[in-house]
């Protein structure tokens, strides 16, 4: 009790509710239907912000930050901060113990091992894969979804992004590999969707963060089944890669001109540059087999960020027909240029890129992320004591009216270079920033450019059920932002 009084008094200077309840803290303020969690977070910060806001999650003192100038000191340094168990423990069953959740030296070793797989030289080579796969996805949607029928676009996107990471970072051939069979993929996508629900359930019921208690509950048993599905997929991926490397070694021995495992495939991707080729084929990497498995799990799980963002882009295009037509005109103009390499083509899609950025401003799918303070941190107007868990709620940062006039208006031209000039560098952080920023940022942007341009070239997107207007959208936070009831759109084939 004395310790709690001491810790409470250290936060006394901050805005926010007082009198935390024993064991619950202010969790009761957050209780309510799961489907409106985002609304409650917004209402809470609307009431107490925009200054740093204190609150207690159970017995843990927490502070929520939304202003760019408050985010900067925390994101730009990682000496004083680490990922808090309270938030990240619940997600590690899903994300694996990989880059997302690791801290300290272990994180640094993993980050160093993964960085070459996301080097821009390697990504340049992925552009061909993204373009080919995006065209196939657009064809599949055109042929499988009856014109004019409302459907939830997230599902096919979930399988699509996992297929992409298999082919790019793991170098697993989509056409031949067992792990790409559609029933395996369906089980994985469904397990992922359920996992989001279960993770949120644990965060809402903090006593379920005690592993042995959670494992005894029905959700704990479902979570174990899902982990089995995800681990099974990971094992298949690694087994397929090992077999491929063995075959590559045999082929190289048979053909002295070939460099082991370094052949270019049809898309010009040097196979030895994929993460798994480097991790399993090159012993100079420091990751153990167990660590490689955890990173494969992480890379599979994080793909849902791209799937979710693409689903928001589809809905925004459907709700903003002039923006959609302008983006389509750009795609047609670029596609009229003959002989462009895939990467050059994607780089020319400047307006489509602005559409993606503006969607990520309004709907940063990783809407909140956390840190725990090792020592006291000075923010521009406040000092936050050591031991506090920080929640950076970028959903509101991206709506800060000082940087985003009429914040709810969808306007891709906010990202014209002249409009970006002078804007606070931390006013827009959908991929976080600083040393723990998203390693897959450029990968995700290239993939999204390929997918959106393939859609625009083949069909018109129209609003689907429940997504008829911005006001009708029921946006929520389930680890990642999502639309309750589905990201529903309709497709209309383009006249020839
Ligand atoms: C639109 C898509 C994406 C968004 C919005 C996004 C956003 C983010 C954010 C906000 C973080 C920081 C999270 C935190 O601090 O807890 C992060 C970290 C990370 N992301 Fe992404 N991400 C996306 C796509 C991807 C993709 C495609 C990959 C992999 C191919 C990826 C891999 C990672 C990894 C490994 C980390 C942890 C980095 C570290 O801590 O060193 N992300 N991402």
UniProtKB/TrEMBL annotation:
CDD domains: CYP4. It is found in: Endoplasmic reticulum membrane; Microsome membrane. It comes from the Eukaryota. The keyword Disulfide bond does not apply. One of its GO terms (cellular component) is endoplasmic reticulum membrane. SUPFAM superfamilies: Cytochrome P450. This is Cytochrome P450 4c3-like.
């Amino acid at each position: 009790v004395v310790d709690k009084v001491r810790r409470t008094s250290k936060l006394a200077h901050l805005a926010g509710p007082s009198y935390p309840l024993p064991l619950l803290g202010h969790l009761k303020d957050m209780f309510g239907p799961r489907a409106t969690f985002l609304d409650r977070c917004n209402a809470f910060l609307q009431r107490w912000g925009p200054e740093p806001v204190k609150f207690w999650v159970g017995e843990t003192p927490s502070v929520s930050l939304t202003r760019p100038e408050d985010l900067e000191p925390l994101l730009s340094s990682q000496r004083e901060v680490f990922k808090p168990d309270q938030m990240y423990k619940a997600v590690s069953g899903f994300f694996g113990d990989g880059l997302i959740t690791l801290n300290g030296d272990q994180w640094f070793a993993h980050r160093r091992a993964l960085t070459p797989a996301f080097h821009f030289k390697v990504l340049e080579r992925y552009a061909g894969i993204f373009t080919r796969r995006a065209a196939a996805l657009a064809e599949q949607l055109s042929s499988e979804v009856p014109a004019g029928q409302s459907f939830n676009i997230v599902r096919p996107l979930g399988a699509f992004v996992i297929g992409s990471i298999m082919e790019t970072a793991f170098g697993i051939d989509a056409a031949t590999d067992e792990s790409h069979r559609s029933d395996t993929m369906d089980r994985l996508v469904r397990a992922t969707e359920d996992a989001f629900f279960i993770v949120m359930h644990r965060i809402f019921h903090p006593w379920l963060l005690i592993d042995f208690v959670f494992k005894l509950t029905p959700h704990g048993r479902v979570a174990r089944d899902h982990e089995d599905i995800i681990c099974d997929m990971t094992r298949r991926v690694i087994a397929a890669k090992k077999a491929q490397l063995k075959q590559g070694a045999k082929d190289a021995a048979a053909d002295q001109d070939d460099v082991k495992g370094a052949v270019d495939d049809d898309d010009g991707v040097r196979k030895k540059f994929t993460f798994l080729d480097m991790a399993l084929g090159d012993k100079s990497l420091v990751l153990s087999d167990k660590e490689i498995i955890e990173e494969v799990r992480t890379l599979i799980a994080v793909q849902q960020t791209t799937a979710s963002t693409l689903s928001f882009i589809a809905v925004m295009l459907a709700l903003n027909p002039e923006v959609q037509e302008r983006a389509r005109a750009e795609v047609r103009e670029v596609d009229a240029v003959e002989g462009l390499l895939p990467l050059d083509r994607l780089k020319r899609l400047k307006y489509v890129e602005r559409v993606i950025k503006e969607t990520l401003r309004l709907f940063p799918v990783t809407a909140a992320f956390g840190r725990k303070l090792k020592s006291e941190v000075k923010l521009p107007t406040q000092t936050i004591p050591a031991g506090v868990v920080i929640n950076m709620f970028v959903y509101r940062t991206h709506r800060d009216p000082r940087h985003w006039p009429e914040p709810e208006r969808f306007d891709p031209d906010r990202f014209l270079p002249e409009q970006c000039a002078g804007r606070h560098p931390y006013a827009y952080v959908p991929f976080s920033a600083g040393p723990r920023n998203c390693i897959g940022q450029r990968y995700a942007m290239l993939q999204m450019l390929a997918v959106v341009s393939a859609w625009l070239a083949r069909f018109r997107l129209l609003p689907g059920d429940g997504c008829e207007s911005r006001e009708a959208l029921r946006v929520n936070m389930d680890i990642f932002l999502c639309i309750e009831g589905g990201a529903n759109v309709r497709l209309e084939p383009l006249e020839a």
